Amino acid sequence: MTPNTADQPAPGGAWSKISAALWRRPWARATLLLTPPLAWFVVIYLAALVVLLITAFWETNSFTNNLERIWNLGNFSTIFTTPAYRSVILRTVGMAAGVTAVDGIIAFPFAYFMARVATRRTRTILYVAILLPLWASYLAKVYAWQLVFTRDGVLNWSLGKIALGPLNLINTNWAVFIAFCYIWLPYMVIPVYAALDRIPGSMIEASQDLGGRTWRTTRSVILPLALPGIVAGSIFTFSLTLGDYIIPELLGGTNSVFIGSVAYDSFLSNNIPLGAAMAIVPIAIMICYLLGARALGAFREL
Amino acid sequence: MESTGLKAALRVWVALVLLFLFLPILLIVIYAFDPATVESWPIQGLTLHWFSVAWHDEGARSAFLLSVKVGLLATGIALVLGSAVAYALNQFKFFGRDAISFLLVLPIALPGIVTGLALNSFFTFTSIQLSLWTIVIGHATFCIVMVFNNVIARLRRTPGSLAEASIDLGARGWQTQLYVMMPSVATALVSGGLLAFALSFDEVVVTVFTSGAQNTLPIWIFGQLRLAQHLPEVNAVVSIVIVLTIIPVLLAARIAGAGAGSRTARAAAVQDTGRI
After folding, report:
1. Domains in chain B, number
2. ipTM for this prediction
3. Do A22 and B173 touch (CB under 8 A)?
4. Is A238 helix (H, G, I), strand (E, B) or coil?
5. What is the pTM of this model?
6. SS3 of A60, please?
7. Per the structure, how many domains does chain A have?
8. Please, which of A22, A281, B63, B185 could form a disulfide with B217 given CB 3.0 to 4.6 Å?
9. Domain range for A19
10. Which of B39, B173, B242 sits opposite A140 (nearest CB)?
11. Which of A24, A48, A67 lies at the terminal end of a domain, its last residue?
12. How far is CA A30 from CA A25, A33, B64, B171, B186, in A?
């Protein structure tokens, strides 16, 4: 039998009494633990999102630049009726989809190698190799591509060496695209690897025993089982591309206006309501995306 | 099952991806030693001049100090709040558990522009002046999930029987927490904290909207890049930043592994640090 310690006189006095009282009341402990963090999220973060939503329905006085709290749908109608803004939205979604697709194609064989071919030691090394660029300064990585693409940069120097004329990618959407693919790639590799790593070897053996060759096994067994991981990765690549304004600002040209750029410019020019309305667009897109992803079971990989 | 040809092809692919990942970072560091004022490839020579310029630059230096200060404060808040949620969610099963973990990921799952603009309009709405503290509030909000992820992963791997054994042997609730649970979670707290610091130290997308007149180091760098000013100096600063952000991450991976001991546990811990 275990001694009933709760009945012994408490050496620590009040502190012990509180601790014992809490131990007997799990709900009190849960409340004590959860109140501060939940209060933080509700009072600051959710409130901020609500304010953003409300601000999108206000307007800025075009003469005084002051925020006027008059409810209207002006910002949304501006966004959806101005052809320039409509093409901004299409360009951003297209960019996000393209980046997601290319990152998926780059990441899958890499993750496959990690999960199914590499020895444990190589696997750990590759894991760290994927994590390091993820954490190396974001701005440094964007700047690195500026150095690669610039007129006298590494790219043109290398192309010159193999006698393929200069290719001026700086200030184009291609530069933006490549930088996006580069910067978000680790976000795709990690969940795809996690999903592939979880596939039991027996499933693949079963497929082979039934006569499935490499391609057939990959298509009918591995790919469907890895899908939740791919979807989880795509949430990051898609969402991060939708909301970035720094890469287009530093690498893009006159045609590189994205949702993030519009929101950022409206912030700079003190027209927050228009920016807020623009920021609602990626939220709406992401909500649809997340609901779809949940249906595919992607959240088990997050 | 993979044929030799497929394996070789996969090896080549992995090597190419690794080159793609690391060459640009290497390039930045090489350029930092280039004496030329306008960067072009190949570099003109080797010098430490730009590091010395960066060291003596008052703007860069104060931005660096502000970033460290913000990082420490945000990490402190994240440690307290993140581990509290992890403990609660690990111990209690209740309605809305999934909603809470979803809420925690939201600040890094939603596009950065959304979080940034939302916080900015929130501070405007509540007439809170942008200051050091508004930056800290923003950073802490998305750092919490880093600590939470690390701690809850560790708690899930710590068998409940350990705590039960401690209670059976007569330890009180707080004694069990302090002497049994704490040591097993300590390394997860350290690695979660280091990752939170690295995340805060590097953040720019949200910080632009919450910083007012203050410059954190990434905002200083963004400003220089935008105006294409002092680029060689930026090279030096950015190289230092790369080293400074990579060190905490490597430490986090090592510490998370060392506490658990075995090699498989280390691999699992490294995996935790990557689960964002």
Report:
1. 1
2. 0.82
3. yes
4. helix
5. 0.84
6. strand
7. 2
8. B63
9. 13-67
10. B242
11. A67
12. 9, 5, 39, 20, 21
